[in-house]
TrEMBL record:
It holds the Pfam family Glyoxalase. Gene3D superfamilies: 3.30.720.110, 3.30.720.120. InterPro entries: Glyas_Bleomycin-R_OHBP_Dase, Glyas_Fos-R_dOase_dom, Glyoxalase/dOase/EhpR, VOC_core. It comes from Rhizobium glycinendophyticum. It comes from the Bacteria. Residues 2-119 form the VOC domain. This is Drug:proton antiporter.
Length: 121
């Protein structure tokens, strides 16, 4: 078996789809009232599913994990931070040097954390 997709439970699939379209600069490949699907250039498939329709029932939405995005270089981390900040995306942690490299963290409308990082050489 092969992991095929990451699904985030959200309160409002339309609001979340608009957010991720702005964040990634691509349109969802599938968009319905309760579910949207993004095929990212990296191969990651990201689903956004309205929590109210999930069976079995989802107990929580955001905050329990991070969507980690590897940037090609440390300068790309800073450039992505600047671009997303200009779009008004909520920044939880500005760019810093961590043990695992240059990184920053933002939040989606449901509190899902999105970390951009570049590991040290």
């Amino acid at each position: 078996m092969t992991p095929a997709m990451t699904i985030l439970y959200v309160e409002n699939a339309a609001v979340s789809a608009d957010f991720y379209e702005k964040l990634f600069g691509i349109k969802p490949t599938d968009r319905a009232e309760t579910f949207s699907l993004f095929h990212l250039p990296t191969g990651l498939v990201l689903g956004l599913w309205s929590r109210a329709g999930v069976e079995p029932e989802a107990q929580v939405t955001g905050g329990g994990c991070e969507l980690a995005i590897r940037a090609p270089g440390a300068a790309d981390v800073d450039a992505t931070h600047a671009r997303w900040s200009a779009l008004g995306i909520p920044v939880l942690q500005p760019p810093v040097e961590a043990d695992f490299g240059r990184t920053f963290t933002v939040s989606d409308p449901d509190g899902h954390r999105i970390r951009v990082f570049n590991p040290p050489a």
